[in-house]
Design goal:
- Among the domains are: about 285-335, no CATH class; about 360-490, Up-down Bundle (Four Helix Bundle (Hemerythrin (Met), subunit A)), CATH 1.20.120.1750.
- The protein is built from 17 helices and 14 strands.
- The strands form 6 sheets. It has a 3-stranded mixed beta sheet, with no helix packed on it. The protein has a 3-stranded antiparallel beta sheet with strand order 2-8-7, covered by helices on one side.
- About 50% of the residues lie in helices and about 10% in strands.
- A hairpin with a 7-residue loop joins strand 7 and strand 8 (about 225-230).
- The protein has helices at about 20, 25-30, 40, 50-65, 70-80, 85-90, 95-105, 115-120, 150-165, 185-190, 195-210, 260-270, 275-285, 340-390, 400-425, 430-455, 460-490; strands at about 5, 10, 125-130, 135, 140-145, 150, 215-220, 225-230, 235-240, 245, 285, 295, 300-305, 315.
Length: about 500
């Protein structure tokens, strides 16, 4: 089964107004089954401000919450339950609201605190802020429902530090010692004046919603602010509005035929220094006295440690002291001892593992590099298409070149990931069929690449067109056969793997 990329619905966080962004998570949940685009497209004919109010209203109706619960409090409650509205609904209507609000670290909106009421009374005298200890008029102080008040300057600096330096969004609590009441979105947006800090806060809140929703995923493309939504979470190819295609399950580029599990292991294997360690194990040994790593740079087995504090002399083959070897400078008379044989066997296994890894890694990297070059072919093909049109060919007639480059890039990407699949694959009859399919597709891909890189003259125009069309159709067919065979193996459990 060959997967085609799913064109996912998406919305652009950067297009929303600040007010809409602060309530974005709540409003999105009530907007319907499909993902929202920019809010102007969610409800045609309405301004973004109207769209925001409408989305907020949808959320509150969906949750059946009492009108005295502000949308920002609803957002905190949802965050506490990892945006699982069913769990929140169950807890909200079990009758113990005080326990629920206490666990979520918010004050029950239906019970305004007595301390809050007392602090709302005006005072003609200046008051000291409990953070900076400077005196300000009572009107310069603000706080949460818990009743703790601080000057606006200290509030702004406190929130800025929490957001920008500590990366906190949904778990910022009151700055009073021992108070765990969370700061709501309205308070944050009211007290922070720096637009960059506001944007960072909005992103943190939105990100918590996306990360907790199994049907949503940020597009991994650089500088893309879109989120894609699917109907079912699975390892399927999805395409963002920006054009980036990726695996919805792991977020990597679409990697058929290898599964996410093995690709993750492969990427880790390529990124860490484990293969450097393999090379060291395969090509060096440790001095038996000081254990410094030594590389053999000549044919003689008589080794002298270069460590100035060691200078030990030993045999490269058996790692024993050199003195008992007498005059046997080139042949170790202990060559067949069990310890020496075990050491050599371990070294051979390490060397074989390294050679196997390099075999698959080199081919994986080669197709990756070729794929980058192939992407640059589009500019060259565009020029060739223009030249062909000058030779009395229509625009439609020259589209075969673009189609050929599309197929070439698809084949390169598939071949690249077949080597990851093959690296972890145990040998059996089915793996032999897979390798034959892989080799056939690889040969055809190289031929197609060669055709596209040739110069096109008037005399060879029709000939090269026929060859390119025949070859890219063959490549399409062989790629489809390879992928179908691999997926058939998944369905029938034909594949066995090497646990690296």
């Amino acid at each position: 089964m060959v997967h085609s990329p799913i064109a996912c619905s998406g919305w652009n966080y950067a297009d929303l107004k600040p007010e809409a962004r602060s309530f974005f998570q709540v409003s999105h949940m009530g907007a319907g089954a499909q993902g929202l685009g920019p809010s102007s497209s969610a409800f045609p004919g309405h301004s973004r401000e109207q769209d925001w109010k409408r989305m907020r209203c949808c959320c509150l109706k969906m949750l059946f919450f009492s009108p005295q619960n502000p949308a920002t409090i609803t957002r905190i409650l949802l965050s506490h339950f990892n945006w699982d509205k069913e769990k929140l609904m169950e807890r909200y209507f079990d009758g113990n609201l005080e326990k629920l609000f206490a666990e979520c670290h918010v004050i029950n909106p239906s019970k305004k605190s007595r301390t809050r009421q007392m602090n709302t009374r005006s005072s003609a005298q200046d008051m000291p802020c409990q953070i900076c200890y400077l005196n300000y008029p009572n009107s310069y102080f603000t706080g949460l429902e818990c009743g703790h008040k601080f000057c606006m300057q200290c509030w702004s600096e406190y929130l800025t530090t929490k957001i920008m330096e500590e990366g906190m969004g949904q778990t910022i609590s009151c700055p009073a010692h021992g108070c765990d009441i969370l700061v709501d979105d309205n308070t944050v947006m009211r007290l922070i004046t720096d637009s960059k800090v506001k944007l960072k806060y909005q992103h943190l809140i939105t990100n918590s919603f996306v990360e907790c929703n199994r049907l949503l995923k940020w597009c991994p493309a650089p500088d893309c602010h879109h989120v894609v939504k699917v109907q079912y979470p699975d390892a399927k190819p999805v395409r963002c509005k920006c054009g980036r295609q990726f695996c919805f399950n792991c977020g990597e580029n679409w990697h058929d035929p290898v599964k996410c599990k093995w690709l993750k292991k492969w990427i880790k294997k390529c990124d860490d220094d484990s293969e450097t360690s393999n090379w060291i194990a395969a090509n060096t040994k440790e001095c038996p006295k000081c254990h410094v790593t030594i590389e053999k740079d000549g044919g003689c087995n008589h080794m002298v440690c270069r460590n100035q504090n060691c200078k030990a002399e030993f045999c490269w083959v058996c790692l024993g002291p050199w003195e008992p070897h007498g005059s046997a400078w080139y042949n170790c008379n202990r060559y067949n001892e069990d310890d020496a044989k075990a050491a050599r066997d371990a070294q051979e296994r390490s060397r074989a593992a390294l050679q196997r890894y390099l075999f698959y890694c080199n081919r994986y990297m080669n197709h990756m590099q070729s794929l980058r070059f192939e992407h640059k072919l589009y500019a060259q093909v565009k020029q060739k298409m223009e030249e062909m049109q000058q030779h009395n060919m229509s625009w439609i007639e020259v589209q075969f070149l673009k189609k050929a480059v599309d197929v070439l890039c698809q084949c390169r990407a598939t071949l690249m990931y077949t080597y990851v699949f093959a690296f972890y694959l145990k040998k059996n009859n089915q793996s032999i069929i897979f390798e034959n399919n892989q080799a056939d597709l690889e040969n055809a891909t190289e031929v197609l690449s060669g055709y596209l890189e040739r110069d096109i003259s008037q005399d060879s125009l029709q000939d090269i067109k026929q060859k390119v069309q025949d070859k890219y159709r063959y490549c399409e067919s062989r790629r489809r056969v390879l992928l179908q065979h691999v997926h058939e193996g998944y369905e029938k459990d034909l594949w066995e793997y090497i646990e690296d």
